[in-house]
Amino acid sequence: MSQARQNRALIIVNTDFCSSDSDGAFGTRRGAKREAEKLSKTLSRLNYKVKLMHNKTAKEIEDLYQQECCCEHGEYFVSIISSHGNEGVIFGYDSEPVKLTRIFQILSSEKCPVLSKIPKIFFIQACRGKEFDRGVVVECDSREPEPDCLSDYISIPPQTVVMFACSPGYVAFLNIFGSMFLQALLKVLEGEERHLALNRLMTRINWHVAFCCQARGTYEGCKEMPCFVTNLLQEVFPFSA
Fold this sequence. Notes:
It is a single chain. The chain is α/β, with parallel strands linked by helices. It has one domain (8-18, 26-133, 149-231): 3-Layer(aba) Sandwich (Rossmann fold). It contains six helices and 14 strands. The protein has helices at 32-45, 58-68, 100-106, 150-154, 180-189, 198-212, and strands at 7-13, 48-54, 77-82, 85-86, 89-91, 97-99, 120-125, 129-131, 139-140, 160-164, 169-170, 173-175, 178-179, 227-230. α1 (32-45) packs parallel to α5 and α5 (180-189) crosses α6. GO terms for molecular function: cysteine-type endopeptidase activity.
């Protein structure tokens, strides 16, 4: 009897950044590495074969998704990206942008037939702008915002869900203990809520971040609101191992 194919997960976490322009490099994202390692262990326990990659350039990030097109996949593909970002882009270790539309294009049915019928689930911990109330000495993951995010939603391929740490135009908070968003994801995956359908699970994450998390210090009381977009046609239970 042949063994069932294992679900796959790709986690990309950029914590240190370099740039040819000494004034253009981003700051170090303290707390992100340990958080990603915890997510890797948790997903491994939930029947995922996890590839955890640290500090990858923009080109290397694209190559990692290209490689997934040549792999054998189980019922689900999950990807977590933790980096500096802007509306519609995340940044590589080399401080160069990777458009989310480019990642979605690589995994589209035309480019990646092996994933055409498999639900693809993204969790993106990155800023989508610079808007927030008053701020603390916390690290946030942004550059200047770009005005149009509609094209990013239109470009999402079939059978795909994307959950963002924050709303368009806003920062995603990160400190030495981790991020509001991915800590909430960890909490859900390590508890009984992991058995919920994906849309309900993501709504629980929204609730947890909105009502249980806030910035401290100078930005005392500043909040964060995750959001997600989906074009799935059925309920899925990707973490009910």
